[in-house]
């Protein structure tokens, strides 16, 4: 039921005139690692062009099961990983298998999607796992943001989850690809993580601007 509600919301929001150009930009560096912010991703399964799919990393938690089912119904693949992110350390449960599965997807030419910030942690601050994965995979991080003109923010949620509403306008913006060198140091990884944060925040502001809102 939730899948059809989200699909209905997506279909009843008029896309901005630049939507096709944004799609072209988004898929110009395939295969790539799409990253989004928590709380801004509810309509993401439907923004992929027709016939195109991605593999999303979804937490192993029971709460994330609904997200996984919606993604599958939308035609995308899912990799379950503890904590809802690419794990950096080998000893963390679920990290190695999830990382290998995602890396194999990229090798096969498929795009993947990852939530950049860590659940229940500091919102709008990406974890080091995303840039570490870009380093070992050799594929670019592509920040992605989407917005609708009508929405409700759940103020009490840790990430200010945004509930999109129907019968408005929709906009998406794609950031500049971020390549992380395979030989960069731990200190440099933090600089690339900051680049991810800055670019994701920039395109989020732009996506809301397209539909008539300022952040």
Tags for this entry?
37% helix; 20% strand; seven-stranded mixed β-sheet; 7 helices; two-stranded antiparallel sheet
Characterise the protein shown here.
With 215 residues, the chain is an alpha/beta fold. It is 37% helix and 20% strand. The chain has one domain. The chain has a seven-stranded mixed β-sheet with strand order 1-9-6-2-5-3-4, sandwiched between helices. Helix 6 packs across helix 7. The longest helix has 25 residues. It is globular and about 50 Å long. About 4% of the residues have low confidence.
Q: Please indicate the percent range of residues in DSSP E strands (runs of 2 or more).
A: 15-25%
Query: What's the Cα radius of gyration?
Result: 16 Å
Distance between the termini: 31 Å
Order of SSEs, N→C?
HEHEHEHEHEHEEEEH
Give a quick account of the main beta sheet: strands, pairing sense, barrel closure.
7 strands, mixed
User: What does the average pLDDT come to?
Assistant: 90
Number of helices: 7
Strand order of the largest sheet: 1-9-6-2-5-3-4
Please report the total strand number as a whole number.
9
**Unreliable residue stretches:** 87-94
């Amino acid at each position: 039921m939730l899948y059809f509600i989200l699909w209905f919301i997506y279909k009843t929001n008029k896309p901005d005139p630049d939507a096709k150009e944004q799609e072209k930009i988004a898929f110009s560096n395939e295969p790539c690692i799409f990253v989004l912010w928590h709380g801004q991703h509810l309509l993401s399964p439907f923004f992929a062009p027709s016939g195109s799919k991605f593999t999303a990393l979804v937490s192993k938690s029971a709460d994330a099961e609904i997200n996984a089912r919606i993604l599958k119904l939308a035609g995308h693949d899912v990799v379950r990983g503890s904590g809802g992110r690419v794990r950096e350390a080998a000893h963390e449960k679920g990290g190695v298998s999830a990382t290998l599965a995602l890396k194999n997807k990229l090798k096969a030419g498929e795009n993947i999607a990852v939530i950049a910030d860590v659940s229940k942690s500091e919102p709008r601050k990406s974890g080091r796992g995303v840039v570490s994965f870009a380093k070992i995979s050799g594929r670019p991080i592509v920040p992605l943001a989407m917005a609708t003109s009508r929405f409700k923010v759940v103020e009490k949620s840790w990430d200010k989850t945004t509930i999109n509403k129907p019968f408005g306008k929709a906009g998406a913006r794609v950031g500049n690809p971020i390549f992380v060198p395979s030989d960069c140091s731990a200190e440099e990884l933090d600089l690339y993580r900051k680049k991810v944060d800055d670019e994701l925040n920039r395109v989020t502001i732009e996506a809301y601007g397209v539909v008539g809102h300022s952040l």
